[in-house]
Amino acid sequence: MSVEAGHVSSALVRRVRLPNDRRTPAAARALVRSILEETGLDSLVNEALLLTTELSTNAVVHAGTELDIEVEADRGGLTVTVTDFAPGPVEQLAVGPRNDKSDIGEVAERGRGLLLVDHFASRWGTVHEGTGKGVWFRLERKGPLGAEPAATEEITPSVGELTALLQIGPERNSDDGLAEFATELLSRLARLTGATGGVVRLDLGDGGGRQLLARHGRAPRDDAETIRVPLTVQRPYSGELELDASPAGYAQPLATIVAERFSLHLENDRLRRADLRRQTWLTFLAEASELLAQSLDVNLTMALIPQLVVPRLGQWCAVHTTDAWGRLQLAAATHADETLVPQLHAMLAEAGPESVLARLEEASRLGQQVMFGTPPEGFAVPLVARGQRLGTLAVGRHLRHRHDGDEVAVLEDVARRAALAIDNARIHDERRKVARTLQASLLPPALPHVPGIGFAAEYVPTGSEVGGDFYDVVSSGDDSWVVVVGDVSGKGVQAATVTGLVRDVIRILVDDGKPMTEILCRVNRTLVQRGGGRYCTLAMASVSRAGTDLEVCLHLAGHDRAVLVRADGKTSFVGEGGTALGLLEQIASPDAAVTLGPGDSLIFYTDGVTERRRGRELFGTGRLRDAATPLAGYPADVMAARLRSTTINFSVEEPRDDIAILVLRNDAL
After folding, report:
1. Residue 489 three-state SS
2. Is there a contact between 593 and 574 (Cβ–Cβ < 8 Å)?
3. Alpha carbons 382 and 149: distance in angstroms, whole number
4. Which residues, 6 or more positions from 70, have their beta carbon under 8 angstroms from its beta carbon?
5. pLDDT (0 to 100) of residue 101
6. Sheet strands (E) in 169-287
7. What is the pLDDT of residues 627-669, one digit of tens each?
8. Measured between alpha carbons, how far apart are the two ends of the chain, in Å?
9. CA–CA separation, 97 and 110 (whole Å)
């Protein structure tokens, strides 16, 4: 740092070259203060230090070069020149372009350096010397020469007070923190301007109107001269700062600075709230999608939608669906106050051109959002999925809150997701009905009723796809029958096709009187040629009377062994394993002869029983045998129903595979 000093025409002049670092403004202030003390110009200290700090700070921040400070003091006042050596217009020294606005509230933030100079200086200007450019200002001494400055009642803020005013910040991001920050700003502004009080009013755009946010001292009087400064914030926020002070001297620009200081924080708070709000809505939509995706039942899905909407997005919600003639039918409705649900149903049933139902029909017909009620009481949003209009979603607003843009957008998003969930549930329900119908066609409508012989079966389908399990009882002559229980690999339409093929081939061959071994060989040949790579396990038994006994010849083609339950409760597995059908050209099919005395039973089943899961644990053949033991002596239909119930109750999970159980019992006395 270099210093030059001298006296020119009884004036004290000092020039200093300062480096570009953060200590430069303090050094510039120290130079100006020392000259003011030497020349007895103490009355100019506040304005001089404020403007020197502003110009030197901006030169350090924006010029990026060394700067020269020239201070000239005489009996009439003080002149300070700040020069930097950066290329570009001189306005950059004062942070930004020159402003032609007279009101500080209309001035760009980057132009306030020159505005402060223009406001406080007696006169000012710019200089261009060689490679340097700068700004100078002149402060005139108040009062006649040689006289002490007269006392004034106008309060002159110090540099420290102004710095503290600009540097104060909120302690926390919350509603209380916002009010505390505004109150602190008002308190400091009142001390600087001598105002008796002030208020900050704010409208958050939530329908509550402009509310008192902060107050200091007494509220501004209606008959008094006050300063009103609007808060420069984005919609939906709006507000103003009102100060009980005359708009003269420092009061107006300081009130404007405080208002913009608070507006900046308010805008940050708005953005923070908007970000949190969007995150909350995204979380809500994700949770709603997950809940809707878990349900594949149409009625349950439609009942779930209003529960998701109320009370988050409205006071009440109703879901209407479109019938085959395009008419809207109420599917589900709920209200935040459960006691008002009957009134809600009555309102939704009202007809007329101005009724809610008419607006819902309009929304469904036009395929777009429609408001209803005067004043607006809510929205009706069409439910559209895959180009098909399914109905409407109606939401009534809360009494003291109107829907904002974000909520309307979320409501439309919920309607899209809800419509897709309803459509998925309908598709799943339709597929389930088709599967049930197709599955029923692969099973006999009823088992034969034969005196002295009990036939009973239980079948539990799973999912919306057709399974490959089947059973049948076919008459093969006088007092003889063929019992079949099988399982074709895979699921779906192809598995159902193969199942129907196997069942029909067996029926035809039995009617032709073919022996059991030949039936199995022909079914195997058919599957190899036309099974499409699918195979089938089969338990087939011929049953004939022999007095009061039943003679059973059992063949197992890769199927689980049957459970023999004697009348005295003894149980055992019978049958010898053979080759599954459809895998090899040649098969082995050993037979096993079983005699069923009166009260004896033979239980056939598919792997859906033994492979029923509870976590990693299987139901297994051992539990099946144990479950069958206490059923000795019961009729065939009771045994089948009990075994089905035991199998299903083994686990809380839905069955993963179809379950087929067929019981043959000797009912002879």
Report:
1. coil
2. no
3. 77
4. 13, 14, 15, 16, 80, 81, 83, 136
5. 47
6. 197-203, 211-217, 227-230, 238-243
7. 999 999 999 999 999 999 999 999 998 888 899 999 999 998 7
8. 126
9. 7
